[in-house]
Amino acid sequence: MNRLEEIKLLAQCMATDNRDAFSRLLEAYADSLRGFLLNLTNGDSMLADDLAQDTFIKAWQGIRSFRGMSGFKTWLYRIAINEYLSFRRRPGSYSYSLDDASHKLTADVTTPHDDCDARHDVRMALDSLPPTERTVAVLFYLEDLPIKKICQLTEMPEGTVKSHLSRARDHMARFLKKDNYEI
Known about the structure:
Helix content: over 70%
Oligomer: single chain
């Protein structure tokens, strides 16, 4: 979707609560947002769908607060990040420590490594990260966003984003080496 079409649809949403215009905006970004949430949730499609739904509801409820300082997609991703982080802070949400994730990984792996196993290993390593490190790592490595865009999405200074990325790399390297498990 080009910027002018996006602005036109946003204006319709804000001025007249036009749900069709909002639906068109969501259609343009729903697949990429869901993919992003799937990466954050370690491939849990039900959780990703729930978080996407919550994101869309919050976006609709807050559409008039959108100031246009960034693109709609950036704003939508920011809401999704907040929804994910809120979910992770709730009591009873899934959370693995390095030891828990390593134990689960070694218990589940019974065949030699192939591409599928390597993807599983990376997902498990990502899942072992604290939520903020995981978010920054997914945005950088899987969504292929530049540091400046990640700063905008996460509302963190550049140095903080770089620190989170560095810690995430170190954390994942330790995870992948744990229990004689190396790629």
